[in-house]
Design a protein that fits this description.
The strands form 3 sheets. Strands 1-2-3 form a 3-stranded mixed sheet. The protein has a 3-stranded mixed sheet with strand order 4-5-6. The protein has a 3-stranded mixed sheet with strand order 7-8-9. Helix 2 packs across helix 6. It contains 8 helices and 9 strands. It is 34% helix and 20% strand. The chain has 2 domains: 124 residues, CBS-domain; 74 residues, CBS-domain (Roll). The radius of gyration is 19 Å and the shape is flat. It is of the alpha/beta class.
Length: 219
């Protein structure tokens, strides 16, 4: 692959943003509406000041108790340490930064620090497909020590695996055969506090449960 000098402009996509003063409920609704995993948080001048992800929301709702998420500002839970690149940087440099900092997306800045766009791991995978010049075996890049759980394990146990191992997904297996995957996104409808359930679309929650086979898990 000849990506060291490839132009980053080829894969930059428009970032969906949310204002610094928005609530967790607002962020959750925007994520679901656009089927996204992250939102860039901007200030009044449209400068990026943070990122909030579905993981941030899923991990936060358990600490809120009875406090409605519509009254909680995202500024208190977003990631504020931003890793950024310039539009003129190469795709290679972008990938190196993402790997070094263990992040799945990176903000692209234009002149005067204005948000230009976003690059994700999915974007890098897409550019790999279009620029690959030789077949690369899956065995060369896969993670061999996969963290797994079983359908009968509790959500609390699975959540602890995610947090302790700093991973975004757990493979669910039965008799050593993969039968599903559970991610942070699945936790929101699976363990909704009553105040979140009241603000969610019941069909939306049911769809998530059916999609993830969450009924197999013990809540």
């Amino acid at each position: 692959m000849l990506l060291k000098n490839a132009d980053l402009d080829k894969i930059i996509k428009r970032a969906i943003t949310i204002n610094l003063n928005a609530s967790l409920l607002d962020a959750r609704e925007v994520l679901l509406r656009h089927n996204l995993k992250r939102l860039v948080v901007t200030d009044a001048k449209k400068h990026p000041v943070g990122i909030i992800t579905e993981k941030d929301i899923a991990k936060t709702i358990y600490a809120l108790g009875d406090k409605p998420i519509k009254s909680v500002k995202i500024s208190g839970f977003m990631s504020k340490k931003l890793i950024t690149v310039k539009k003129t940087d190469s795709i290679y440099d972008c990938a190196k930064l993402m790997k070094k900092n263990h992040i799945s997306s990176i903000i692209v800045l234009g002149n005067n620090g204005i948000l230009e766009g976003l690059v994700t791991k999915t974007d890098l995978a897409s550019i790999f497909l279009t620029h690959a010049i030789s077949p690369l075996k899956v065995s060369k890049i896969m993670t061999r020590n996969v963290i797994t759980a079983m359908p009968g394990d509790s959500l609390l146990y699975v959540e602890s695996l995610l947090i302790h191992n700093r991973i975004a997904r757990i493979v669910i297996q039965r008799n050593r055969i993969p039968v599903g995957i559970i991610t942070y996104r699945d936790f929101v409808p699976a363990k909704l506090p009553y105040w979140l359930a009241q603000s969610a679309d019941p069909k939306e929650v049911d769809n998530y449960k059916m999609k993830s086979n969450l009924d197999e898990f013990q809540v």
